[in-house]
Design brief:
By secondary structure, this protein is an alpha+beta fold. It has one domain (3-165): Nucleoside Triphosphate Pyrophosphohydrolase (Alpha-Beta Complex). 13% of the residues lie in helices and 29% in strands. It contains two helices and nine strands. The chain has helices spanning 56-68, 152-162; strands at 8-17, 23-28, 43-44, 47-49, 73-79, 83-86, 102-112, 132-138, 175-177. The chain is globular, with a radius of gyration of 15 Å. The chain starts with 7 loop residues before the first strand and ends with a strand.
Length: 181
């Protein structure tokens, strides 16, 4: 990385839609360095960093599996432009994410093709501690109101860009959608 983009960590986000057009969100257990949560705003969609040279769709599938256990998913589309957010002020101990000012995310929409019993937040997939302790299916339009304030613009762009996928009666092929907002 070079220039202004070097300040942002490369990241993918995943909007996983069920057959009723609702999106999977999970409740974060606690803060992770500069990625802090605020009481009442603990919910988010799966997301995570990309490895150097990793294909973005591969990264999205990996993160979806690592955080939720889900492998039964079809790509519906993605936003055509990355969206970024800055960390809020952080005064804790040094952290691995501290070298960046925030994250630059490429968002993917997937249709969940499995059963709810496939969703497993225990993080047994990676051997790391679980990041989430609960999950639910939520209306896409409600997402900006349940996330931490510093991610609201990103979630508003995701809501605008992926709105067509929230209507399960509209068949969709794989699409690249503009990042709104």
């Amino acid at each position: 990385m070079c220039g202004a983009d070097a300040a942002y960590r490369s990241n993918v986000g995943i909007a996983l839609f069920n057959g009723q057009g609702r999106v999977l969100i999970a409740r974060r257990i606690g803060d992770d360095g500069p990625e802090v949560i605020y009481p009442g705003f603990e919910w988010q969609m799966p997301q995570g960093g990309t490895d150097p040279g990793e294909d973005l769709e591969t990264a999205a599938r990996r993160e979806l599996f690592e955080e939720t256990g889900v492998t039964s998913a079809q790509v519906l589309g993605r936003l055509d432009q990355p969206v970024t957010y800055d960390w809020p002020p952080y005064h804790g101990p040094p952290h691995r994410l501290g070298r960046w000012r925030g994250q630059s995310q490429v968002w993917f929409a997937f249709r969940f093709t499995g059963c709810d019993s496939e969703i497993d937040l225990a993080a047994l997939q990676t051997g790391e501690a679980a990041e989430f302790d609960a999950w639910r299916w939520e209306q896409l339009s409600m997402l900006p109101g349940v996330v931490v304030p510093y991610k609201r613009e990103v979630y508003s762009a995701v809501v605008a860009g992926f709105a067509p996928f929230a209507d399960p009666s509209v068949p969709r092929d794989r699409e690249v959608l503009p990042a709104s907002g």
